[in-house]
Amino acid sequence: MIDNEKYSFSADWFSLGCLVYEMIEGQAAFRARKEKVKREEVERRVKNDNEKYSSKFSEEAKSFCQSVINLLIK
């Protein structure tokens, strides 16, 4: 999706991982709360930066989010 190429269910899993991340953390995985960034910057962060996990995440939740978010990237 990010590179405007064909995609499969991996994009749905990525979206689920981002949604679960937001539900636990209370903010998006790739931008700070109330941060205004252009789409290109968010795309760059998704491709190049690792999401940050606070103490709100159990090891299981962190592992789940990492696994499904990375499906789209790899």
How would you characterize this protein structure?
The chain has 74 residues and is mostly helical. The chain contains three helices and no strands. Helix 1 packs antiparallel against helix 3 (59-73). The longest helix is centred in the first third of the chain and has 16 residues, at 10-25. The protein is globular and about 35 Å long. 12% of the residues are buried.
Report the β-strand fraction as a percent range: under 5%
Number of E-state strands: 0
| Rounded mean pLDDT score | 85
N-end to C-end Cα span: 13 Å
Structural Rg: 12 Å
Protein structure class = mainly alpha
Low-confidence stretches: none
Report the order of strands and helices.
HHH
Number of helices: 3
The biggest sheet, with number of strands, parallel, antiparallel or mixed sense and barrel status, is: none
Shape: globular
| Assembly type | single chain
What portion of residues is helical? 55-70%
Characteristic key phrases:
74 residues; mainly alpha; 3 helices; 55% helix; 0% strand
Structure at a glance:
With about 70 residues, this protein is mainly alpha-helical.
SSE topology:
Elements: H1 10-25, H2 39-48, H3 59-73
